[in-house]
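Incident log, support desk, overnight shift.

02:14 A customer reports that sequence design results differ from what the structure should imply. Their input is reproduced verbatim below. On-call engineer (initials T.W.) acknowledged and began investigating.
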């Protein structure tokens, strides 16, 4: 393939992705500048291509230019955060990464800058901080008119869940960090809030942040705040640690927090002070951390998603919330609670569920745990007529709750032939994966390492029932 062919491919790729791309040669001449970057920086492509980067970025000193650092010193600048005002007066926020392109002889032959527009996410994060700050400082918050949860809201008397509640109540008497492990939908945030509301910190803020919801550069600003002049367009703004001072900060899905940011969090936990992004002042804080994970800590550490040192610092108190399938005796009390709650909310007069319906609900595995049970009851009540009791045929569970018969692979290879023998083995493996995934196609496909469409084809081929979880 000729050089011009490679260039044509590169141009096609750069013009059809959602990130801005700016490529300069070793001599500083601009060779690629796509439409997305043109719109972000409000510069015409013809005013960039063929010109030296120093001319294009004449307002940026060489020592501050990430492209010049890449060309001169082979420096990679990852996730550089900047905010600027475009020609229409709109504030734009981007996250830029600049990397040198080095050949086999160790020579820099080009530098590439990639810019991602995160303006909407930044606006959302700023709104979150502003609303939380407003809530904390209003009389409404101080008078506790905002919905809060205590241990009385946690329903269940099964032996394993009772042990968890007992441990949570003891945790509320101290201020040590807490790590809560449980599958999605098991009520980890309700437990965290209950611990806070039974503690000496109950009159102070309880704030929560999902660590998977924002990219690293924005999450850092959300947590620690920003200092004016710290980066282009930065303003003085409190982060969640300052807003939650004296109270509790829940970090949901802590393993989704980028690895480097986890080390900064560890330092905060050890030293009890924060430094705003771009700031130089150490700010003392008094915040209790409660963190949650929905995978086993050992697996997260092995897979490089959770720092081992942070794990040990968080797990001073470790709480493992059992899934609903291991709390079968709690299902009926939960059903009764949700029936009463949503019958009142939807102005219905439902008194209960038939015995057969209860049996189906008790035998269901609930891959979505309590949250899934709540949604099932909510759906039934919202669509019910004027009947007093819900019958089993009104239950719309994701799959047939009767276990599917596993295939015993005891056939003789010689009798069946290789193709049929392999089919039987594959069918048995798929059935087991579907059952282990609660009947959901996407989860089973992930477990098997297959594309979702591929698994759907095989399900039809072998006549295996599963839930289409895209609907």
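02:41 Re-run completed on a clean worker. Output:
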């Amino acid at each position: 393939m000729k050089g011009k062919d490679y260039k044509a491919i590169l141009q096609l790729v750069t013009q059809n992705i959602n990130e801005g791309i700016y490529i300069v040669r070793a001599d500083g001449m601009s060779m690629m500048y796509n439409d997305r970057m043109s719109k972000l920086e409000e510069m015409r492509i013809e005013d960039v291509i063929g010109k030296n980067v120093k001319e294009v970025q004449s307002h940026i000193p060489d020592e501050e230019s990430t492209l010049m650092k890449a060309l001169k010193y082979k420096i990679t600048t990852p996730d550089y955060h900047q905010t600027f005002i475009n020609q229409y007066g709109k504030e734009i926020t981007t996250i830029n990464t600049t990397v040198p392109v080095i050949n086999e002889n160790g020579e820099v032959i080009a530098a590439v800058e990639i810019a991602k527009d995160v303006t909407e996410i930044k606006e959302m994060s700023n709104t979150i901080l502003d609303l939380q700050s407003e809530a904390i400082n209003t009389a409404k918050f101080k008078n506790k008119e905002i919905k809060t949860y205590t241990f009385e809201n946690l329903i269940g008397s099964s032996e394993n869940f009772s042990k968890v509640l007992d441990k949570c109540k003891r945790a509320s008497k101290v201020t040590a960090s807490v790590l809560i492990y449980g599958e999605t939908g098991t009520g980890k945030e309700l437990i965290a809030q209950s611990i806070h509301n039974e503690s000496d910190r109950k009159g102070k803020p309880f704030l929560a942040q999902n660590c998977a919801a924002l990219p690293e550069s924005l999450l850092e600003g959300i947590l620690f705040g920003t200092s004016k002049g710290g980066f282009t367009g930065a303003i003085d703004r409190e982060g969640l640690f300052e807003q939650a001072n004296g109270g509790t900060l829940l970090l949901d899905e802590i393993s989704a927090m980028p690895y480097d940011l986890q080390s900064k969090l560890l330092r905060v936990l050890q030293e009890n002070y924060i430094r705003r992004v771009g700031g130089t002042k150490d700010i003392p804080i008094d915040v209790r951390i409660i963190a949650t994970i929905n995978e086993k800590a050992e697996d997260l550490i092995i897979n490089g998603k959770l720092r081992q040192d942070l794990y040990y610092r968080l797990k001073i108190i470790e709480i493992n919330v059992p899934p609903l399938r291991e709390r079968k005796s709690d299902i009926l009390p939960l059903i009764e609670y949700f029936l009463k709650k949503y019958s009142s909310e939807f102005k219905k007069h439902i008194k209960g569920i038939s015995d057969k319906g209860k049996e189906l609900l008790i035998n269901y595995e609930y891959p979505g745990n309590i949250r899934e049970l709540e949604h099932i009851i909510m759906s039934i009540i919202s669509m019910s007529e004027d009947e007093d009791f819900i019958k089993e045929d009104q239950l719309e569970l994701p799959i047939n709750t009767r276990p599917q018969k596993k295939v015993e692979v005891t056939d003789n290879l010689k009798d069946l032939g290789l193709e049929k023998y392999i089919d039987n083995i594959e069918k048995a493996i798929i059935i087991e994966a579907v059952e282990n995934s609660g009947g959901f196609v996407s989860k089973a496909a992930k477990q098997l390492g297959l594309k979702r469409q591929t698994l759907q084809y095989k399900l039809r081929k072998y006549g295996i029932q599963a839930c289409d979880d895209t609907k």
